[in-house]
Amino acid sequence: MDEAMSSLRKVARSFLANPRSEGAITKLHLKVYLINNYAYEIGPLLSEAIDIGILKDLDLAILDEKEISDCTDEQMLQQASVVNGFFSAYPSVFHCLTRLSLYNICFAELDINHLLFECCKQLHHLYLSNCDLDDRSVWKIDAPDSKLSVLQLNVCLLGRLDVLCLPKLQHLEWDTWLCARAPLSFSVVPSLKEICLICAASNTNRGFVLSEVLNDTTSIHTIKLDFQGEKLWLQPEGKQLTALNKLRKLSLHGIFVEFNLLWTLVLLDAAPFLEIFDIEINDSMEMYEERPNPSWKVPKFASPSNLYMKELQIIGFKPLEQQIEFIRSVMQRAPILNTVLLKYDDPCEDCEKMGIFPPRPSRNCMFPKGEDEQDMVVNLLKDGVSSPARIIFDD
Predict the structure, then answer these.
(1) Element (H or E) spanning 375, and its range?
(2) Strand ranges of the sheet holding 184-188, from the earlier edge strand across to the other edge
(3) Strand partners, 315
(4) Which of 199, 191, 211 is nearest to 173 (CA)?
(5) Which end of the chain, N or C, is surrounded by fewer C-beta atoms within 10 Å?
(6) Contact 187, 164 (CB under 8 A)
(7) How many Cα atoms occupy the beta-carbon half-sphere of 45 within 13 Å?
(8) Would you give per-residue pLDDT tens digits along the chain (395 residues)?
C-alpha cells in the first residue's frame, strides 16, 4: 500500500499540480488508501484542482486493507475517523464528488445523512462495503434534494434500511443482510426501476413477503433475487404482488437444485408484461442450514397469461422432472415465447476443491450435451404443448 500510494502521489502531482492548457478534466477515477501522510499530500492537490475549475467530476474510492471477516468494530470506527478527517480538511472534494465508494466504516459517531446527502450535492452513485451504524440501527434516508441514482450495499449489517425519500434513485442493490424480516422499505422513490437483493439466509431469518418491500414503488421494471443456494427468504403470497405489473425482467438466482420451481409461477402470473424470465439453479454440495422446499400455493393453469414473454433462461439446467415440468408450465403461459435457453453452469470453486463435481451418482442428471440427449429433452418439453419457442442448449 505504501508503494502504491507513493506512486499515486507522484502521478497526482504531475497530473494536477501544473495548470492544464487543454481545459477541465472530464472525469477523474481515484482510489486511495488514507495511510501515513498521503491524505495530506493528495488532498491539497484535489482541492486546488477543484477550486480553480480544472476538476469537475470525481469518482473517489477510499479503500481499506482489512478483509471484512478480519475487521473489528474498533477498526471500523478508526476508519470512519480517518475518512471524516479527510473530508473535514478538504471540503472542496464534496463539490464535484459524483461517485463515492467506502469500505469498513462504522458511522456511529458521524451524521451519515449529512455527510452523504447534504454535503455531497452532486453524488449520483454510492457504494458501501461493510459499513454500518453500530448496533444494527435502522438507517433512514430522507433526502428530497439528492441526485443519488444508484445505491449499492455489500455486507452492510443494518437493522433495516428505510428509504423515505430519494426522488432520483433508479437502482438499489443489497448483498447480504442480517435482518430477521424485511431488510428495507420504500416511501418516495418515483424513479426506482431496478432492485437486486442477494443473501444466503440462515434459519434465524424468518423471511418477508415481497409486496411488503415493493408496496410504495410504481415503476419497477427489473428485479433480481439471489438466494445463493440456501433457504428462500421470501414468504408465500399471491394477489398482493401488484407492484410487479410493470415488470419486464425477473431474475431468480441461487435456487437450490432440489427445490421445486413451480412456486416461481406465482411471481410470473403477477407480472403480465414480463419479457425475460431468468432462473439460475444452484447445485452446491455445501449445506450450512436446513433448506425446506418452497410451500407456495401455485394457481392452476387456466389460459395464457404472459402475453409479452419472449425469453426463458435456465442456468444450470438438468433434465430433472421438476425442471421439465416448470419449463412446460411457462411455455403454456407464454404464447409468443420464442426462446428457451438452457445453459450449462460451471462448478463453483469450492465444489471443485472438495472434489465433489460432477454431482453425486444419486443425482446423475448432467447437462444434455449430445444431439440424442438434446432431442430427448426437446421432445419432453414440447409433448402436448403448443409453443413456437426454440429450445437452445448452451454448454
Answers:
(1) helix 371-382
(2) 138-142, 160-165, 184-188
(3) 280, 343
(4) 199
(5) C
(6) yes
(7) 20
(8) 888 888 888 888 888 876 655 667 889 999 999 888 888 888 998 998 898 888 889 999 999 988 998 999 999 999 999 999 999 999 999 989 999 999 999 998 889 999 999 999 999 999 999 999 877 789 999 999 999 999 999 999 899 999 999 999 999 999 999 888 899 999 999 999 999 999 998 767 788 999 999 988 999 999 999 999 998 999 999 878 888 999 999 999 999 999 999 999 999 999 999 999 999 999 876 655 678 888 898 877 767 778 899 999 999 999 999 999 999 999 999 999 999 999 998 655 555 555 554 444 334 457 888 899 999 999 999 998 989 999 999 97
The total of other beta-carbon atoms located within 10 Å of residue 154's CB is 17
> How big is the chain, counted in residues?
395
Residue reference for cell 508503494: 3
**CA 148, CA 171: separation in Å to the nearest integer?**
10
Position of cell 424468518?
Answer: 206
Backbone phi, then psi, for 197, in 5-degree steps?
A: -125, 125
